[in-house]
Structures are given as C-alpha cells and as structure tokens.
TrEMBL record:
Protein name as annotated: DUF4396 domain-containing protein
Stretches that traverse the bilayer: 6-24, 36-54, 110-134, 155-175, 187-210
Signal peptide feature range: none
Swiss-Prot/TrEMBL keywords: Membrane, Transmembrane, Transmembrane helix
DUF4396 domain segment(s): 75-215
Species of provenance: Salinicoccus siamensis
One Pfam family named in its UniProt record: DUF4396
C-alpha cells in the first residue's frame, strides 16, 4: 500500500512540474533562475506548488502585466522556494552518487548521504542565489555577488537541511526496520516529505533574513 501511495505522490509531483514547465516556456520569468525553481518545487510540493506558482509566481512573467498584490508572507514564501529548489536539486543528485559509489562514512551509508547531499545542496543553493543577485546588479561584480549569495543562503540552507535530515533519521532509524533503497518509489516519496519539512524549517529563517535586510524578499 505504501508503495502505491508513493508512486501516486511521485506522479502528482511529476505532473505538477510538467504543468509549470509548459507555462514558464509560454510565460518566462523576469528572473531567469525562477524558470528552474518553480518546476523543482512542483516535484515535492505538487498541487501546492501549482497554486503558489499561478498565484504568486506568474506575477513575475516577462510577457504578462499582472498587478503584484502579494503580502510579505507570500514574498518570503517565494524566497524560501528559491532556496529550497537549490537544496532539493543538490540533495537529489547526492543520492545516486552515494548509491552508485557504495560510499560510507564511519561505516554508515546515512552519514555519506548527509555529507554528499549537504555539499551539493550548498553548492547549488549558492549558485541559485548568485543567479538571483548578480543579474540585478552586475556593476557590483561577480565576487560581491557570490559573497552576498553566501550571506543570504547559508543560514537558510542549514535550516532546510535540519528539517530534511531530521526526517531522514526518522525514516532510517525509527519508521522502517529496513529503510527503502534509492531504487524504490518509497525512498523518493520519503524524500518528497523531507523536502516539504525542509521548506517548513527554512521559512522562518528566510523571514528573519529578509527582516534583517540580509536577503531580499522575492
């Protein structure tokens, strides 16, 4: 039953991503990186991503003249989505690297996943943040944009990984006697849940970063 539920959830996520991809091709975002962010969010947030994209994301389409009536909560939601997408991409890419390489740390595959996924999530998180900051102020230079990206994304990324890794610990040590493997749908369904929890733990940190002026609401 759990396997069936997993494949249903994964299919809903994939369909949500495809719908968003089709729409951003028709209505590309002003900020190019968001054309990647929204489909990634569709994978783990499913219908919620669709609702938020059409309600809060499409406002920023280049070829549409839509009035921006979003409140601060919605803008911080989009900022958190941007951070979460970079983390999600890095985390997802880390899984096959660890699995195919049969990597372990201190004899633990879980520790290897945590290490590989954090490193890749940090790299992609900073890159996603860089491509949000640099196009808006190219005169400041690449170096300053990277420094600003690190300041804006580091705490947010750590908060995301706390939620995600916390769930992975429960999955591997509490919920399952034999945890699902990366070649099973259940594994990726657990990852979807991990991404949602990561988003939830990252949201208040993004709100604080925006309030302190360290990060801009998107």
């Amino acid at each position: 039953m759990l396997s069936i539920i997993s494949w249903i959830a994964l299919s809903i996520g994939a369909i949500s991503s495809i719908i968003i991809i089709v729409d951003v091709f028709r209505h590309p975002q002003h900020m190019t990186i968001m054309n990647i962010v929204w489909p990634i969010n569709g994978w783990f947030f499913g219908p919620i991503a669709l609702w938020t994209y059409f309600r809060w994301g499409r406002i920023n389409a280049k070829n549409l003249e839509l009035e921006d009536k979003r409140g601060n909560g919605a803008k911080v939601f989009v900022s958190t989505s941007h951070c979460s997408a970079g983390c999600t991409l890095g985390d997802a890419l880390g899984v096959p690297i660890v699995a195919l390489g049969a990597l372990t740390i201190a004899g633990s595959t879980l520790y290897a996943h945590f290490t590989a996924q954090f490193i890749l999530a940090y790299i992609f998180g900073i890159l996603f943040q860089f491509y949000a900051i640099y196009p808006m102020n190219k005169k400041a230079g690449v170096k300053n944009a990277f420094v600003s990206a690190i300041k804006a994304d580091t705490l947010s990324l750590i908060a995301f990984e706390v939620g995600m890794f916390g769930w992975m610990v429960l999955v591997n040590l509490v919920i399952f006697s034999t945890p699902p493997a990366p070649n099973e749908g259940t594994y990726w369904f657990m990852m979807q849940i991990a991404m949602i929890l990561g988003f939830l733990t990252s949201y208040p940190v993004n709100w604080w970063l925006v309030k302190r002026g360290i990060k801009e609401a998107m």
